[in-house]
Amino acid sequence: MALPHIMERSAVTEARPDRSPAGSAPVISATDLDLTFRTNDGPVHALKGVNLAIGKGEFVSFIGPSGCGKTTFLRCVAGLEHPTGGTLTVNGMSPDEARRARAYGYVFQAAGLYPWRTIGGNIRLPLEIMGFPKAEQAERTRRVLELVDLAGFEKKYPWQLSGGMQQRASIARALAFDADILLMDEPFGALDEIVRDRLNEELLRLWDRTGKTIGFVTHSIPEAVYLSTKIVVMSPRPGRITDVIDSPLPRERPLDIRDSRAFIEIAHRVREGLRAGMVDD
Amino acid sequence: MRALGPVLVVLLALLALWYAAVPVMNVQETLTRAERAGAVIEPASAVERRDMASIGLALRNAGQLGEAWSLERPRLPAPHQIAAEIWASTWDEEVNGRRGIVQSGSFSNRSLVYHAGITLTATAAGFAIGAVLGILLAVGIVHSRVLDLSLMPWAIVSQTIPIVALAPMIIVVLYSVGVQGLLPKAIISAYLSFFPVVVGMVKGLRAPDAMQLDQMRTWNASSAQVFWKLRLPASVPYLFASMKIAVAASLVGAIVGELPVQQGGLGARMLAGSYYGQTAQIWAALFAAAALAALLVWFVGWLERRTLRAMGGPA
Questions:
Q1: Whole-structure pTM value
Q2: What is the ipTM of this complex?
Q3: Per residue in B21-40, pLDDT tens?
Q4: Family, per the entry (chain B) (predicted)?
Q5: How far away is chain B from the Cα of A171, in angstroms, using its nearest Cα?
Q6: Phi then psi for A52, rounded to 5 degrees?
Q7: Measured between beta carbons, which residues in chain A are less than 8 angstroms from residue B313?
Q8: Domains, in order of start, for chain A
Q9: Do A105 and B221 count as a contact with CB atoms less than 8 A apart?
Q10: How far is A169 from chain B (nearest CA, A)?
Q11: Domain B112-310: top CATH class
Q12: By CB count within 10 A, which of A24, A30, A257, B262 is most buried?
Protein backbone atom coordinates (compact mmCIF):
# COMPACT_ATOMS: atom_id res chain seq x y z
CA MET A 1 0.00 0.00 0.00
CA ALA A 2 1.47 3.32 -1.05
CA LEU A 3 1.56 6.00 1.59
CA PRO A 4 2.99 9.07 -0.13
CA HIS A 5 2.65 11.34 2.91
CA ILE A 6 4.73 9.12 5.13
CA MET A 7 7.33 8.91 2.41
CA GLU A 8 7.52 12.70 2.29
CA ARG A 9 7.91 13.06 6.03
CA SER A 10 10.50 10.32 6.17
CA ALA A 11 12.48 11.98 3.43
CA VAL A 12 12.57 15.16 5.48
CA THR A 13 13.72 13.30 8.57
CA GLU A 14 16.40 11.48 6.66
CA ALA A 15 17.74 14.73 5.30
CA ARG A 16 18.50 15.98 8.81
CA PRO A 17 22.25 16.64 9.17
CA ASP A 18 22.60 14.91 12.52
CA ARG A 19 21.70 11.54 11.12
CA SER A 20 24.64 9.20 10.63
CA PRO A 21 25.28 7.95 7.08
CA ALA A 22 24.16 4.48 8.09
CA GLY A 23 20.73 5.90 8.97
CA SER A 24 20.92 4.41 12.46
CA ALA A 25 20.81 7.61 14.55
CA PRO A 26 18.17 7.19 17.27
CA VAL A 27 14.78 8.81 16.77
CA ILE A 28 14.39 9.14 20.53
CA SER A 29 17.48 9.49 22.68
CA ALA A 30 17.62 9.95 26.47
CA THR A 31 20.85 10.52 28.42
CA ASP A 32 20.97 10.56 32.24
CA LEU A 33 17.35 11.70 32.29
CA ASP A 34 16.04 12.81 35.70
CA LEU A 35 12.59 14.03 36.65
CA THR A 36 11.83 14.97 40.23
CA PHE A 37 8.36 16.14 41.27
CA ARG A 38 8.25 18.42 44.28
CA THR A 39 5.38 17.40 46.54
CA ASN A 40 4.35 18.24 50.10
CA ASP A 41 5.81 14.90 51.22
CA GLY A 42 9.21 15.78 49.78
CA PRO A 43 10.68 15.13 46.33
CA VAL A 44 9.43 12.19 44.28
CA HIS A 45 11.99 10.75 41.85
CA ALA A 46 9.76 9.80 38.94
CA LEU A 47 12.76 9.17 36.69
CA LYS A 48 16.40 8.77 37.67
CA GLY A 49 19.40 8.23 35.38
CA VAL A 50 17.41 6.96 32.41
CA ASN A 51 19.51 6.17 29.33
CA LEU A 52 17.77 4.90 26.23
CA ALA A 53 18.07 5.09 22.46
CA ILE A 54 15.19 4.15 20.19
CA GLY A 55 15.97 3.63 16.53
CA LYS A 56 13.76 4.37 13.56
CA GLY A 57 11.01 1.83 12.99
CA GLU A 58 11.44 0.13 16.35
CA PHE A 59 8.50 -1.02 18.46
CA VAL A 60 9.50 -0.33 22.05
CA SER A 61 7.41 -1.40 25.03
CA PHE A 62 7.79 0.06 28.50
CA ILE A 63 6.73 -2.32 31.24
CA GLY A 64 6.81 -2.07 35.00
CA PRO A 65 4.67 -1.65 38.09
CA SER A 66 2.75 1.58 38.86
CA GLY A 67 5.04 4.45 39.73
CA CYS A 68 8.01 3.14 37.74
CA GLY A 69 7.90 6.18 35.48
CA LYS A 70 6.97 4.46 32.22
CA THR A 71 4.12 6.85 31.51
CA THR A 72 6.19 9.77 32.78
CA PHE A 73 8.94 8.88 30.32
CA LEU A 74 6.45 8.79 27.47
CA ARG A 75 5.04 12.15 28.57
CA CYS A 76 8.58 13.58 28.62
CA VAL A 77 9.08 12.41 25.05
CA ALA A 78 5.78 14.11 24.16
CA GLY A 79 6.81 17.36 25.84
CA LEU A 80 3.94 17.07 28.34
CA GLU A 81 6.38 16.80 31.27
CA HIS A 82 9.74 18.49 31.50
CA PRO A 83 12.80 16.59 32.77
CA THR A 84 14.72 18.20 35.61
CA GLY A 85 18.04 16.77 34.44
CA GLY A 86 19.80 15.07 31.55
CA THR A 87 19.05 15.43 27.87
CA LEU A 88 16.25 14.09 25.72
CA THR A 89 15.95 14.51 21.97
CA VAL A 90 13.15 13.51 19.61
CA ASN A 91 14.06 13.51 15.91
CA GLY A 92 17.16 15.44 16.98
CA MET A 93 15.03 18.23 18.48
CA SER A 94 13.97 19.03 22.03
CA PRO A 95 10.66 17.37 22.94
CA ASP A 96 8.88 20.75 22.90
CA GLU A 97 10.19 21.54 19.42
CA ALA A 98 9.18 18.06 18.31
CA ARG A 99 5.69 18.64 19.75
CA ARG A 100 5.38 21.92 17.89
CA ALA A 101 6.63 20.20 14.74
CA ARG A 102 3.90 17.58 15.35
CA ALA A 103 6.48 14.81 15.23
CA TYR A 104 4.34 12.25 17.05
CA GLY A 105 0.80 11.00 17.54
CA TYR A 106 -0.22 10.21 21.11
CA VAL A 107 -2.81 7.61 22.08
CA PHE A 108 -4.09 7.85 25.65
CA GLN A 109 -5.53 5.07 27.81
CA ALA A 110 -9.06 6.38 27.23
CA ALA A 111 -10.10 6.87 23.63
CA GLY A 112 -11.15 10.43 24.51
CA LEU A 113 -13.35 10.84 21.45
CA TYR A 114 -15.56 13.93 21.51
CA PRO A 115 -19.16 12.75 21.90
CA TRP A 116 -20.45 15.67 19.81
CA ARG A 117 -18.34 14.72 16.80
CA THR A 118 -18.81 11.75 14.51
CA ILE A 119 -15.94 9.26 14.20
CA GLY A 120 -14.92 11.05 11.01
CA GLY A 121 -15.22 14.39 12.79
CA ASN A 122 -13.02 13.16 15.63
CA ILE A 123 -10.32 12.04 13.22
CA ARG A 124 -10.53 15.35 11.37
CA LEU A 125 -10.06 17.25 14.65
CA PRO A 126 -6.23 17.26 14.70
CA LEU A 127 -6.24 17.89 10.94
CA GLU A 128 -8.48 20.95 11.42
CA ILE A 129 -6.22 22.18 14.19
CA MET A 130 -3.16 21.73 11.99
CA GLY A 131 -4.84 23.52 9.12
CA PHE A 132 -4.96 20.81 6.46
CA PRO A 133 -7.11 21.74 3.45
CA LYS A 134 -10.65 20.32 3.47
CA ALA A 135 -10.16 17.86 0.63
CA GLU A 136 -7.00 16.47 2.18
CA GLN A 137 -8.77 16.12 5.56
CA ALA A 138 -11.42 13.95 3.91
CA GLU A 139 -8.85 11.89 2.04
CA ARG A 140 -6.70 11.28 5.12
CA THR A 141 -9.73 10.45 7.27
CA ARG A 142 -10.89 7.89 4.73
CA ARG A 143 -7.41 6.36 4.55
CA VAL A 144 -6.76 5.97 8.29
CA LEU A 145 -10.27 4.63 8.87
CA GLU A 146 -9.45 1.91 6.37
CA LEU A 147 -6.13 1.34 8.09
CA VAL A 148 -7.82 0.56 11.42
CA ASP A 149 -10.68 -1.34 9.80
CA LEU A 150 -13.36 1.23 10.54
CA ALA A 151 -14.35 2.13 6.99
CA GLY A 152 -18.11 2.74 6.96
CA PHE A 153 -18.17 4.08 10.53
CA GLU A 154 -17.22 7.62 9.57
CA LYS A 155 -20.72 9.03 10.18
CA LYS A 156 -21.37 7.14 13.44
CA TYR A 157 -21.10 8.79 16.83
CA PRO A 158 -18.71 7.40 19.48
CA TRP A 159 -21.53 6.07 21.69
CA GLN A 160 -22.60 3.86 18.81
CA LEU A 161 -19.23 2.03 18.86
CA SER A 162 -17.80 -0.59 21.24
CA GLY A 163 -14.83 0.24 23.48
CA GLY A 164 -12.43 -1.58 21.17
CA MET A 165 -13.72 0.26 18.12
CA GLN A 166 -13.45 3.57 19.94
CA GLN A 167 -9.83 2.87 20.78
CA ARG A 168 -9.17 1.96 17.14
CA ALA A 169 -10.72 5.28 16.13
CA SER A 170 -8.40 7.05 18.56
CA ILE A 171 -5.41 5.28 16.98
CA ALA A 172 -6.67 6.37 13.57
CA ARG A 173 -6.84 9.92 14.89
CA ALA A 174 -3.21 9.71 16.06
CA LEU A 175 -2.19 8.35 12.63
CA ALA A 176 -4.15 10.88 10.60
CA PHE A 177 -1.42 13.52 10.37
CA ASP A 178 1.35 11.05 9.53
CA ALA A 179 3.77 11.71 12.33
CA ASP A 180 6.47 9.07 12.11
CA ILE A 181 6.41 8.41 15.87
CA LEU A 182 3.42 6.88 17.64
CA LEU A 183 3.35 7.10 21.45
CA MET A 184 0.79 4.87 23.15
CA ASP A 185 0.04 5.00 26.88
CA GLU A 186 -1.70 1.74 27.84
CA PRO A 187 -4.06 2.11 24.91
CA PHE A 188 -5.68 -1.28 25.47
CA GLY A 189 -5.57 -1.23 29.28
CA ALA A 190 -9.31 -0.79 29.66
CA LEU A 191 -10.29 -3.49 27.15
CA ASP A 192 -10.97 -7.17 27.73
CA GLU A 193 -8.43 -9.84 26.81
CA ILE A 194 -10.16 -11.01 23.62
CA VAL A 195 -10.48 -7.55 22.13
CA ARG A 196 -6.97 -6.76 23.27
CA ASP A 197 -5.51 -9.77 21.43
CA ARG A 198 -7.18 -8.71 18.26
CA LEU A 199 -6.07 -5.12 18.54
CA ASN A 200 -2.50 -6.27 19.29
CA GLU A 201 -2.49 -8.25 16.07
CA GLU A 202 -3.91 -5.31 14.15
CA LEU A 203 -1.39 -2.94 15.70
CA LEU A 204 1.49 -5.14 14.56
CA ARG A 205 0.10 -5.22 11.05
CA LEU A 206 -0.33 -1.47 11.10
CA TRP A 207 3.23 -0.98 12.34
CA ASP A 208 4.49 -3.25 9.58
CA ARG A 209 2.59 -1.34 6.91
CA THR A 210 3.49 2.15 8.08
CA GLY A 211 7.03 1.66 9.39
CA LYS A 212 6.41 3.99 12.30
CA THR A 213 8.49 4.15 15.46
CA ILE A 214 6.24 3.12 18.34
CA GLY A 215 6.62 3.72 22.07
CA PHE A 216 4.11 1.58 23.96
CA VAL A 217 3.41 1.60 27.70
CA THR A 218 1.80 -1.52 29.15
CA HIS A 219 1.19 -3.54 32.31
CA SER A 220 0.98 -6.82 30.46
CA ILE A 221 4.03 -9.05 29.94
CA PRO A 222 2.54 -11.08 27.03
CA GLU A 223 1.45 -7.88 25.31
CA ALA A 224 4.94 -6.36 25.66
CA VAL A 225 6.71 -9.48 24.40
CA TYR A 226 4.28 -10.09 21.57
CA LEU A 227 4.46 -6.55 20.19
CA SER A 228 7.97 -5.33 20.74
CA THR A 229 11.32 -5.35 19.05
CA LYS A 230 12.68 -3.89 22.26
CA ILE A 231 11.30 -4.25 25.79
CA VAL A 232 12.25 -1.73 28.44
CA VAL A 233 11.73 -3.10 31.97
CA MET A 234 11.36 -0.39 34.62
CA SER A 235 11.04 -0.30 38.39
CA PRO A 236 9.82 2.30 40.88
CA ARG A 237 11.30 4.48 43.68
CA PRO A 238 13.20 5.93 41.93
CA GLY A 239 11.76 5.29 38.48
CA ARG A 240 14.55 3.67 36.46
CA ILE A 241 15.34 1.16 33.75
CA THR A 242 16.38 -2.26 35.07
CA ASP A 243 16.66 -4.17 31.79
CA VAL A 244 16.47 -3.55 28.05
CA ILE A 245 15.68 -6.65 26.03
CA ASP A 246 16.15 -6.77 22.25
CA SER A 247 13.61 -9.29 21.06
CA PRO A 248 14.86 -12.09 18.78
CA LEU A 249 11.33 -12.75 17.53
CA PRO A 250 10.77 -12.25 13.79
CA ARG A 251 8.78 -9.26 12.52
CA GLU A 252 6.06 -11.57 11.29
CA ARG A 253 4.23 -12.71 14.42
CA PRO A 254 1.14 -14.86 14.35
CA LEU A 255 -0.79 -15.00 17.67
CA ASP A 256 0.40 -18.55 18.38
CA ILE A 257 4.02 -17.37 18.50
CA ARG A 258 3.17 -16.88 22.16
CA ASP A 259 3.47 -20.61 22.70
CA SER A 260 6.95 -20.72 21.18
CA ARG A 261 10.07 -21.31 23.26
CA ALA A 262 11.67 -18.00 22.33
CA PHE A 263 8.55 -16.11 23.42
CA ILE A 264 8.41 -17.87 26.78
CA GLU A 265 12.09 -17.21 27.38
CA ILE A 266 11.72 -13.49 26.77
CA ALA A 267 8.63 -13.36 28.96
CA HIS A 268 10.64 -15.11 31.66
CA ARG A 269 13.44 -12.57 31.39
CA VAL A 270 10.94 -9.71 31.64
CA ARG A 271 9.44 -11.27 34.74
CA GLU A 272 12.91 -11.68 36.27
CA GLY A 273 13.67 -8.03 35.52
CA LEU A 274 10.43 -6.94 37.17
CA ARG A 275 11.17 -9.06 40.22
CA ALA A 276 14.72 -7.69 40.50
CA GLY A 277 13.27 -4.19 40.57
CA MET A 278 11.06 -5.09 43.51
CA VAL A 279 13.88 -6.47 45.70
CA ASP A 280 14.77 -3.00 46.97
CA ASP A 281 11.37 -2.57 48.65
CA MET B 1 -49.00 7.44 31.57
CA ARG B 2 -48.29 5.36 34.64
CA ALA B 3 -47.19 8.59 36.34
CA LEU B 4 -50.63 10.14 35.81
CA GLY B 5 -52.11 8.58 38.97
CA PRO B 6 -49.63 10.02 41.48
CA VAL B 7 -49.70 13.40 39.70
CA LEU B 8 -53.48 13.57 40.02
CA VAL B 9 -53.38 12.48 43.67
CA VAL B 10 -50.97 15.30 44.56
CA LEU B 11 -53.08 17.81 42.61
CA LEU B 12 -56.28 16.70 44.34
CA ALA B 13 -54.60 16.78 47.76
CA LEU B 14 -53.47 20.36 47.14
CA LEU B 15 -56.97 21.38 46.03
CA ALA B 16 -58.55 19.67 49.06
CA LEU B 17 -56.13 21.47 51.39
CA TRP B 18 -56.95 24.75 49.68
CA TYR B 19 -60.74 24.29 49.92
CA ALA B 20 -60.36 23.34 53.59
CA ALA B 21 -58.34 26.49 54.27
CA VAL B 22 -60.84 28.82 52.59
CA PRO B 23 -63.56 28.91 55.36
CA VAL B 24 -60.94 29.31 58.08
CA MET B 25 -59.20 32.18 56.28
CA ASN B 26 -62.48 33.91 55.44
CA VAL B 27 -64.28 33.19 58.72
CA GLN B 28 -64.70 36.82 59.95
CA GLU B 29 -66.25 38.17 56.77
CA THR B 30 -68.42 35.07 56.32
CA LEU B 31 -69.83 35.23 59.86
CA THR B 32 -70.50 38.97 59.62
CA ARG B 33 -72.54 38.36 56.48
CA ALA B 34 -74.37 35.40 58.04
CA GLU B 35 -75.20 37.54 61.07
CA ARG B 36 -76.60 40.31 58.85
CA ALA B 37 -78.74 37.68 57.16
CA GLY B 38 -80.22 36.78 60.55
CA ALA B 39 -78.21 33.77 61.72
CA VAL B 40 -77.16 33.36 65.35
CA ILE B 41 -73.38 33.51 65.70
CA GLU B 42 -71.33 32.26 68.62
CA PRO B 43 -70.06 34.51 70.26
CA ALA B 44 -72.50 37.23 69.34
CA SER B 45 -70.18 40.23 69.77
CA ALA B 46 -68.16 41.19 66.67
CA VAL B 47 -65.48 42.77 68.90
CA GLU B 48 -65.06 39.50 70.77
CA ARG B 49 -64.92 37.57 67.51
CA ARG B 50 -62.21 39.84 66.14
CA ASP B 51 -59.73 38.69 68.77
CA MET B 52 -60.48 34.98 68.47
CA ALA B 53 -58.39 32.42 66.58
CA SER B 54 -59.83 31.67 63.14
CA ILE B 55 -59.87 27.89 63.57
CA GLY B 56 -61.77 28.03 66.86
CA LEU B 57 -64.26 30.48 65.43
CA ALA B 58 -64.80 28.34 62.35
CA LEU B 59 -65.31 25.18 64.41
CA ARG B 60 -67.85 26.84 66.72
CA ASN B 61 -69.90 28.15 63.78
CA ALA B 62 -69.39 25.30 61.35
CA GLY B 63 -72.99 25.54 60.14
CA GLN B 64 -72.74 29.18 59.08
CA LEU B 65 -69.73 28.98 56.73
CA GLY B 66 -71.58 28.19 53.51
CA GLU B 67 -70.79 31.51 51.91
CA ALA B 68 -67.02 31.31 52.59
CA TRP B 69 -66.31 29.84 49.12
CA SER B 70 -68.25 32.51 47.24
CA LEU B 71 -67.40 35.83 48.89
CA GLU B 72 -66.96 38.80 46.61
CA ARG B 73 -63.74 39.98 48.22
CA PRO B 74 -62.38 36.98 50.13
CA ARG B 75 -59.13 36.99 52.03
CA LEU B 76 -58.37 33.64 50.34
CA PRO B 77 -60.36 33.00 47.17
CA ALA B 78 -61.39 29.42 46.39
CA PRO B 79 -59.74 27.73 43.37
CA HIS B 80 -62.94 27.90 41.29
CA GLN B 81 -63.16 31.66 41.95
CA ILE B 82 -59.61 32.06 40.65
CA ALA B 83 -60.44 29.92 37.63
CA ALA B 84 -63.44 32.12 36.94
CA GLU B 85 -61.29 35.25 37.27
CA ILE B 86 -58.69 33.81 34.88
CA TRP B 87 -61.42 32.97 32.38
CA ALA B 88 -63.02 36.41 32.72
CA SER B 89 -59.71 38.24 32.30
CA THR B 90 -58.48 36.21 29.34
CA TRP B 91 -60.99 34.62 26.96
CA ASP B 92 -64.10 36.51 28.07
CA GLU B 93 -62.38 39.91 28.10
CA GLU B 94 -60.73 39.44 24.71
CA VAL B 95 -63.66 37.85 22.91
CA ASN B 96 -66.65 39.63 24.42
CA GLY B 97 -65.17 42.78 26.00
CA ARG B 98 -65.48 46.19 24.35
CA ARG B 99 -61.68 46.59 24.50
CA GLY B 100 -60.91 42.97 23.61
CA ILE B 101 -59.02 41.90 20.52
CA VAL B 102 -62.17 40.79 18.73
CA GLN B 103 -63.87 44.20 18.87
CA SER B 104 -60.91 46.59 19.06
CA GLY B 105 -58.19 44.74 17.17
CA SER B 106 -55.71 44.89 20.05
CA PHE B 107 -55.41 43.10 23.38
CA SER B 108 -57.42 44.69 26.18
CA ASN B 109 -55.36 46.36 28.90
CA ARG B 110 -57.65 44.68 31.42
CA SER B 111 -56.72 41.24 30.16
CA LEU B 112 -54.07 38.90 31.51
CA VAL B 113 -53.01 38.13 27.95
CA TYR B 114 -51.97 41.74 27.48
CA HIS B 115 -50.11 41.93 30.79
CA ALA B 116 -48.46 38.56 30.34
CA GLY B 117 -47.25 39.79 26.94
CA ILE B 118 -45.61 42.84 28.56
CA THR B 119 -43.94 40.66 31.17
CA LEU B 120 -42.84 38.15 28.55
CA THR B 121 -41.17 40.89 26.48
CA ALA B 122 -39.24 42.19 29.49
CA THR B 123 -38.34 38.64 30.50
CA ALA B 124 -37.07 37.72 27.05
CA ALA B 125 -35.01 40.90 26.78
CA GLY B 126 -33.62 40.43 30.29
CA PHE B 127 -32.85 36.77 29.71
CA ALA B 128 -31.03 37.55 26.48
CA ILE B 129 -28.91 40.23 28.18
CA GLY B 130 -28.30 38.02 31.22
CA ALA B 131 -27.36 34.92 29.22
CA VAL B 132 -24.95 36.77 26.92
CA LEU B 133 -23.42 38.63 29.86
CA GLY B 134 -23.14 35.41 31.85
CA ILE B 135 -21.42 33.55 29.01
CA LEU B 136 -18.97 36.40 28.40
CA LEU B 137 -18.13 36.66 32.10
CA ALA B 138 -17.61 32.90 32.31
CA VAL B 139 -15.28 32.93 29.30
CA GLY B 140 -13.26 35.70 30.94
CA ILE B 141 -13.19 33.95 34.30
CA VAL B 142 -12.03 30.64 32.81
CA HIS B 143 -9.26 32.21 30.76
CA SER B 144 -7.91 34.74 33.21
CA ARG B 145 -7.02 34.14 36.82
CA VAL B 146 -7.15 37.90 37.43
CA LEU B 147 -10.76 38.02 36.22
CA ASP B 148 -11.58 34.92 38.25
CA LEU B 149 -10.32 36.62 41.40
CA SER B 150 -11.74 40.06 40.66
CA LEU B 151 -15.13 39.26 39.09
CA MET B 152 -16.40 36.13 40.79
CA PRO B 153 -16.71 37.68 44.30
CA TRP B 154 -18.78 40.56 42.86
CA ALA B 155 -21.01 38.18 40.99
CA ILE B 156 -21.66 36.31 44.23
CA VAL B 157 -22.18 39.49 46.29
CA SER B 158 -24.62 40.80 43.67
CA GLN B 159 -26.91 37.87 44.40
CA THR B 160 -26.98 38.44 48.16
CA ILE B 161 -28.82 41.77 47.83
CA PRO B 162 -32.62 41.37 47.81
CA ILE B 163 -33.80 42.32 44.35
CA VAL B 164 -36.94 44.06 45.71
CA ALA B 165 -34.65 46.50 47.53
CA LEU B 166 -32.46 47.09 44.52
CA ALA B 167 -35.10 47.26 41.77
CA PRO B 168 -36.55 50.72 42.59
CA MET B 169 -33.03 52.17 42.75
CA ILE B 170 -32.06 50.75 39.40
CA ILE B 171 -35.20 52.27 37.92
CA VAL B 172 -34.63 55.67 39.56
CA VAL B 173 -30.97 55.80 38.49
CA LEU B 174 -31.76 54.77 34.93
CA TYR B 175 -34.69 57.22 34.76
CA SER B 176 -32.39 60.05 35.79
CA VAL B 177 -30.15 59.32 32.81
CA GLY B 178 -33.17 59.17 30.52
CA VAL B 179 -33.60 55.39 30.25
CA GLN B 180 -37.13 54.14 30.81
CA GLY B 181 -39.66 51.71 29.43
CA LEU B 182 -38.57 48.17 28.63
CA LEU B 183 -34.85 48.50 29.36
CA PRO B 184 -34.90 49.09 33.14
CA LYS B 185 -37.14 46.04 33.64
CA ALA B 186 -34.92 43.99 31.34
CA ILE B 187 -31.84 45.03 33.33
CA ILE B 188 -33.40 43.95 36.62
CA SER B 189 -34.36 40.71 34.95
CA ALA B 190 -30.82 40.27 33.59
CA TYR B 191 -29.42 41.03 37.05
CA LEU B 192 -31.09 37.88 38.35
CA SER B 193 -30.45 35.68 35.35
CA PHE B 194 -26.76 36.25 34.59
CA PHE B 195 -25.58 34.57 37.78
CA PRO B 196 -26.72 30.97 37.21
CA VAL B 197 -25.37 31.24 33.66
CA VAL B 198 -21.95 32.37 34.95
CA VAL B 199 -21.76 29.56 37.49
CA GLY B 200 -22.97 26.86 35.07
CA MET B 201 -20.85 28.10 32.20
CA VAL B 202 -17.65 28.33 34.28
CA LYS B 203 -18.23 24.76 35.38
CA GLY B 204 -18.95 23.70 31.79
CA LEU B 205 -15.92 25.42 30.28
CA ARG B 206 -13.77 23.73 32.89
CA ALA B 207 -15.38 20.33 32.27
CA PRO B 208 -12.71 18.98 29.87
CA ASP B 209 -10.34 16.79 31.89
CA ALA B 210 -6.53 16.85 32.04
CA MET B 211 -6.28 14.11 29.42
CA GLN B 212 -8.35 16.04 26.89
CA LEU B 213 -6.26 19.17 27.46
CA ASP B 214 -3.02 17.14 27.16
CA GLN B 215 -4.33 15.71 23.93
CA MET B 216 -4.84 19.23 22.60
CA ARG B 217 -1.25 20.04 23.59
CA THR B 218 0.09 17.05 21.66
CA TRP B 219 -1.54 18.59 18.59
CA ASN B 220 -0.03 21.95 19.51
CA ALA B 221 -3.48 23.57 19.51
CA SER B 222 -3.79 27.30 20.29
CA SER B 223 -5.94 28.34 23.23
CA ALA B 224 -8.50 29.72 20.78
CA GLN B 225 -8.72 26.29 19.16
CA VAL B 226 -9.02 24.63 22.57
CA PHE B 227 -11.88 27.01 23.33
CA TRP B 228 -13.87 26.60 20.12
CA LYS B 229 -13.28 22.91 19.54
CA LEU B 230 -13.24 21.55 23.09
CA ARG B 231 -14.31 23.88 25.89
CA LEU B 232 -17.33 25.46 24.23
CA PRO B 233 -18.97 22.25 22.93
CA ALA B 234 -18.23 20.52 26.25
CA SER B 235 -20.02 23.31 28.13
CA VAL B 236 -23.32 23.10 26.22
CA PRO B 237 -25.13 20.67 28.60
CA TYR B 238 -24.08 22.84 31.56
CA LEU B 239 -25.22 25.98 29.76
CA PHE B 240 -28.72 24.62 29.19
CA ALA B 241 -29.07 23.39 32.78
CA SER B 242 -28.20 26.85 34.07
CA MET B 243 -30.37 28.59 31.45
CA LYS B 244 -33.42 26.74 32.76
CA ILE B 245 -32.81 28.29 36.17
CA ALA B 246 -31.92 31.64 34.60
CA VAL B 247 -35.10 31.94 32.54
CA ALA B 248 -37.27 31.43 35.63
CA ALA B 249 -35.15 33.98 37.51
CA SER B 250 -35.59 36.37 34.57
CA LEU B 251 -39.34 36.17 34.96
CA VAL B 252 -39.12 36.94 38.68
CA GLY B 253 -36.86 39.89 37.85
CA ALA B 254 -39.26 41.25 35.24
CA ILE B 255 -42.22 41.00 37.64
CA VAL B 256 -40.28 42.73 40.43
CA GLY B 257 -39.23 45.40 37.95
CA GLU B 258 -42.89 46.01 37.07
CA LEU B 259 -43.90 46.72 40.67
CA PRO B 260 -42.39 50.22 40.94
CA VAL B 261 -42.92 51.10 37.27
CA GLN B 262 -46.68 50.41 37.11
CA GLN B 263 -46.89 50.45 33.32
CA GLY B 264 -48.57 47.13 32.83
CA GLY B 265 -47.34 43.60 33.25
CA LEU B 266 -48.20 40.81 35.66
CA GLY B 267 -46.30 42.57 38.47
CA ALA B 268 -48.35 45.72 38.02
CA ARG B 269 -51.49 43.63 37.90
CA MET B 270 -50.63 41.94 41.22
CA LEU B 271 -49.91 45.25 42.90
CA ALA B 272 -53.15 46.77 41.57
CA GLY B 273 -55.05 43.78 42.90
CA SER B 274 -53.58 44.28 46.36
CA TYR B 275 -54.41 48.02 46.33
CA TYR B 276 -58.08 47.31 45.69
CA GLY B 277 -58.40 44.12 47.76
CA GLN B 278 -58.96 42.04 44.63
CA THR B 279 -57.35 38.86 45.87
CA ALA B 280 -58.75 36.80 43.01
CA GLN B 281 -57.00 39.16 40.60
CA ILE B 282 -53.70 38.73 42.44
CA TRP B 283 -54.04 34.98 42.39
CA ALA B 284 -55.00 34.97 38.73
CA ALA B 285 -51.89 37.00 37.92
CA LEU B 286 -49.83 34.62 40.06
CA PHE B 287 -51.11 31.63 38.13
CA ALA B 288 -50.50 33.40 34.85
CA ALA B 289 -46.90 34.04 35.98
CA ALA B 290 -46.49 30.39 36.97
CA ALA B 291 -47.85 29.24 33.62
CA LEU B 292 -45.52 31.65 31.84
CA ALA B 293 -42.55 30.31 33.85
CA ALA B 294 -43.48 26.73 32.99
CA LEU B 295 -43.74 27.67 29.34
CA LEU B 296 -40.33 29.39 29.36
CA VAL B 297 -38.58 26.49 31.12
CA TRP B 298 -40.22 24.06 28.74
CA PHE B 299 -39.02 26.14 25.81
CA VAL B 300 -35.42 26.11 27.05
CA GLY B 301 -35.73 22.35 27.59
CA TRP B 302 -37.01 21.90 24.05
CA LEU B 303 -34.09 23.97 22.74
CA GLU B 304 -31.75 21.80 24.81
CA ARG B 305 -33.11 18.56 23.39
CA ARG B 306 -32.84 19.86 19.85
CA THR B 307 -29.30 21.15 20.36
CA LEU B 308 -28.01 18.00 22.05
CA ARG B 309 -29.55 15.85 19.34
CA ALA B 310 -27.86 17.99 16.70
CA MET B 311 -24.62 17.45 18.63
CA GLY B 312 -24.89 13.70 18.23
CA GLY B 313 -26.59 12.74 21.49
CA PRO B 314 -28.72 9.59 21.53
CA ALA B 315 -32.06 10.57 20.00
A1: 0.81
A2: 0.82
A3: 999 999 888 888 888 888 88
A4: Belongs to the binding-protein-dependent transport system permease family.
A5: 13
A6: -160, 140
A7: 115-116
A8: 26-103+181-281 (3.40.50.300), 111-178 (no CATH)
A9: no
A10: 15
A11: mainly alpha
A12: A30
